[in-house]
Amino acid sequence: MPEAYSLDLRERVAHFVETGRSCHAAAAHFSVSVSFVVRLMKAFRTTGGLAPKPSGGRRHAKLDPHRAFLIARIAEKADITMPELAAELAATTGTRADPASLSRWLIRNGYRFKKNAAGERARSPRRQSGARRMDHHAPAAHAA
Fold it and tell me: Which of 1, 50, 55, 67 is most enclosed, with most CB atoms within 10 A?
């Protein structure tokens, strides 16, 4: 991500434009883009400041206020799916969250996917049908 222009440069550009020169002339003089000068002057006229906007940082999760509800639901029903949890969260608290967001939030808070006793991921019975089951059978001999 590109770094913001220095406050010194911002002050010089603003002073250049404030003395009656155009934004295009300021952009050419200071070797910056015209859009930067236009946006800088617009912000300067509305806020009176030249400091750059904050960049990056961590956003606050909207699920943090519902931590008690989410953990209680997982304790009550350990095999709850993320879509079910998302639906219950929306119905109870009115906060809509994508199942993937819930999954990431749970992982950040120390919860992982279920494992069976052998230490492998648990599979549902319906996943073992079809092609996987056919691998265990010998091919039938065709009568010619």
Answer: 50
Q: What SS3 state is found at 29?
A: helix
pLDDT at 134: 46
What does the alpha-carbon distance between residue 40 and residue 128 come to, in Å, rounded to a whole number? 61
d(CA 49, CA 72): 47
Give me the pLDDT at residue 124, please.
Answer: 63
Nearest C-alpha neighbor of 84 from the set 101, 71, 99:
99
CA distance 100 to 115: 19
Percent of all residues in the chain with a pLDDT value above 90, rounded to a whole number: 43
- For the chain, how long is the longest CA-to-CA vector? 97
Q: Give residue limits of the domains in the chain.
A: 7-47, 64-116
Quickly count: other Cβ atoms within 10 Å of residue 126's Cβ. 7
